[in-house]
Design brief:
Structural class: alpha/beta
CATH superfamily of one domain: ATPase, nucleotide binding domain
Mean pLDDT: 93
Number of helices: 17
Low-confidence stretches: 396-405
Bound molecules: adenosine-5'-diphosphate
Strand content: 15-25%
Strand order of the largest sheet: 1-11-10-9-12-13
Largest sheet: 6 strands, mixed
CATH architecture of one domain: 2-Layer Sandwich
Shape: globular
Distance between the termini: 76 Å
Order of helices and strands: HHEEEEHHEEEHEHEEEHHHHHHHEHHHEH
CATH class of one domain: Alpha Beta
CATH topology of one domain: Nucleotidyltransferase, domain 5
C-alpha cells in the first residue's frame, strides 16, 4: 500500500545518495591525492595532517634479539614481547597481553595513567623473564601511542590532542615518551623508549618485516587511518631534513579527509551534528566501526517515523548507538530463508518485534547499502595513496616515470575488525579496488591482513632503531 511505497521511496533515496559509481570513486581518489600533496606542502595546508613520523627505515626481517612494546590507542591496552631470530623474518616467540584501561584513568592525570602502564609492563616482564640474567640488561621498548602527535624524532613527540574518550588535561603539549620514561624510572625499570609510533606505522612496520614491497598501511576498526612511505623530497614542509633511505613514513590521519565528491546524505549530516566532534573526521564517520551501526539505526528510525512498518517507534531506536556495527554485519550476513538473525537483532538491540519478512529484507538491504559505500570509499582512499606514490598505473600526481615502475608489486598492510571480521565489507573493498584500478593493475596490488600489527610493529621498530647493537 501507500506506506510501503513511502518506505521503498526512502530506500531509493538512500541508495541514490550513497551512490559510489567508479566515476565518483575516481574523483575521490584524485581528491585524496591532491589533499595529500597539500598537507605535505605546508602545516595546516589540508584537512589531512600528513604528520611526520621520522621513521625512515622499516624493519627488514634481519632484526635480532628480544624487544618489548606497549600499545595504547583505545579502550584496550597491550603489552608485548617479541623474540626475533635475526634472519628470514622469523619471530621466534611472541607474547601479547591485553587488558582494558580502567575508565577513571582515561580522564585522570598523566601520572596515574603512566604509572598504571609502567606497572603492567613491570609485572609482564617479571613473569616472562623470571629473574633470569637478562633482567639486568637495558631493554628497548617500542611505544604505540595512537593519538595525534607532533613528532620531533622517531622516539619523541608532543601530544596534539586526545581522542577516543581520553581527556587528561595536563598532557596535551607534553612529550609523550618522556611521560612514559619517567613512570618507568619511578618503577625502577631499566628501559628506553626507542620508537614512538602511531598504530598505522606499527602495522606498516610489521607488513614490511614480512614483505619488502609493503609501502602503506590502513586500519579500519573503531576508527580509520592510514600511513605510507613517502619520498623525503616530496615532503616539502620538512625541507632540509635528510634521511639515509631518502624516504619517511607519513601518518596521514586520513579519518579527517574531506571532499565535496564524497556521497553525503542527510543521515551523515545528522550523525555528524550529534557527535562530540562535529565537522571533524568526516571520512571516518562514513567508514569506521564506531559509526556504521548508528547510520543504519538512523535510516530505520526515519522509516519508522514516516510509516508504521516497524510498528510503534521504539525508544531504543531513538537512542544513539543502540545498534552496533557487529550487529549490522550479522544482519547483513544472515543467509537464512526467514532472516532469523535480522529478526533476533531487531528485537534484541532495537526492541522492534513482529516485522514481516519483507521488512526484514529491507533492513538487510539498508545494511548492504551503508557497508558497500563504506568499503568502496576505503578502497578509493587506498588508491589515492597509490596514485600519490605513482603505483596506480597512471604515472603519479607529480607526473612520474610512466614505465614498469608503475606495475611494480605493491603491498598494503591492513588491520582492523571491519576488514578482518566483516566478509562483505572486505569483498566490497576488493571489488572496488579492481573496478578503480582495472584488473591489469589491481593484480599487482596485494592487501595483506596483519594481526597485532600496531604493537608487534612497534617492537620491530624498537629493534631496527636499536642503539645497543
Ligand atoms: P580498535 O578499537 O583497536 O580499532 P578493532 O579493529 O577490533 O579494534 O575494531 C573494533 C571495531 O570494529 C568496533 O567499532 C566494532 O564495532 C567493529 N567490529 C568488531 N567486530 C566486528 C564484526 N564482526 N563485524 C563488523 N564490525 C565489527
Amino acid at each position: 500500500g501507500n506506506k510501503w511505497r513511502r518506505v521503498v521511496g526512502l530506500l531509493r533515496e538512500l541508495e541514490e545518495a550513497c551512490e559510489t559509481t567508479v566515476g565518483r570513486l575516481r574523483q575521490v581518489v584524485d581528491a585524496m591525492a591532491v589533499e595529500m600533496h597539500a598537507g605535505l606542502a605546508s602545516e595546516g595546508g589540508s584537512k589531512l595532517k600528513m604528520l611526520l613520523t621520522f621513521v625512515d627505515n622499516l624493519p627488514t626481517g634481519c632484526e635480532k634479539g628480544t624487544y618489548y612494546a606497549l600499545d595504547l590507542g583505545g579502550t584496550n591496552f597491550r603489552v608485548l614481547r617479541v623474540q626475533l631470530g635475526g634472519e628470514n623474518s622469523s619471530i621466534v616467540d611472541q607474547d601479547v597481553q591485553r587488558q582494558r584501561i580502567p575508565q577513571h584513568l582515561m580522564t585522570g592525570t598523566s601520572e596515574d595513567l603512566f604509572d598504571f602502564i609502567a606497572l603492567s609492563l613491570l609485572q609482564f616482564i617479571e613473569r616472562k623473564e623470571n629473574g633470569s640474567e637478562q633482567s639486568k640488561q637495558m631493554r628497548e621498548l617500542g611505544f604505540t601511542f595512537s593519538f595525534p602527535m607532533k613528532q620531533t624524532s622517531v622516539s619523541s613527540g608532543i601530544l596534539i590532542k586526545w581522542t577516543k574518550g581520553f581527556a587528561i588535561e595536563n598532557m596535551v603539549g607534553q612529550e609523550v615518551a618522556g611521560c612514559l620514561q619517567q613512570a618507568l624510572a619511578r618503577r625502577g625499570l631499566n628501559m628506553r623508549v626507542t620508537a614512538l609510533v602511531n598504530d598505522t606505522v606499527g602495522t606498516l612496520a610489521l607488513g614490511h618485516y614480512y614483505d619488502a614491497d609493503t609501502v602503506a598501511a590502513v586500519i579500519i576498526g573503531t576508527g580509520t587511518n592510514a600511513c605510507y612511505l613517502e619520498r623525503i623530497d616530496a615532503i616539502i614542509k620538512c625541507q632540509g631534513h635528510l634521511t639515509t633511505s631518502g624516504g619517511m613514513v607519513v601518518n596521514m590521519e586520513w579519518g579527517n579527509f574531506w571532499s565535496s565528491h564524497l556521497p553525503r546524505t542527510s543521515y551523515d549530516i545528522e550523525l555528524d551534528a550529534g557527535s562530540p566532534n562535529p565537522n571533524d573526521q568526516g571520512f571516518e564517520k562514513m567508514i569506521s566501526g564506531m559509526y556504521l551501526g548508528d547510520f543504519v539505526r538512523r535510516v530505520i528510525l526515519k522509516m519508522s517515523q514516516e510509516t508504521d512498518v516497524f510498528g510503534p517507534i521504539s525508544s531504543k531506536l531513538l537512542e544513539p548507538f543502540t545498534l552496533s556495527t557487529p550487529s549490522v554485519a550479522a544482519m547483513h550476513e544472515d543467509d537464512s530463508p526467514e532472516l532469523t538473525e535480522v529478526e533476533r537483532i531487531l528485537k534484541h538491540d532495537l526492541e522492534i518485534q513482529d516485522v514481516s519478512l519483507k521488512v526484514r529484507k529491507l533492513v538487510l538491504k539498508i545494511c548492504d547499502v551503508v557497508t558497500r559505500r563504506a568499503a568502496r570509499l576505503a578502497a578509493a582512499g587506498i588508491v589515492g595513496i597509490l596514485k600519490k606514490i605513482g603505483r596506480d598505473g597512471s604515472g603519479g600526481i607529480a607526473g612520474g616515470r610512466r614505465s614498469d615502475i608503475n606495475i611494480r608489486r605493491t603491498v598494503v598492510a591492513i588491520e582492523g575488525s571491519l576488514y578482518a571480521e566483516y566478509a562483505m565489507f572486505r569483498e566490497y573493498l576488493h571489488e572496488a579496488l579492481n573496478e578503480i584500478l582495472g584488473e591489469d593493475i589491481a593484480q599487482h596490488v596485494v592487501l595483506r591482513l596483519t594481526e597485532d600489527g600496531p604493537g608487534i610493529g612497534a617492537a620491530l621498530l624498537a629493534a631496527s632503531q636499536s642503539t645497543l647493537r
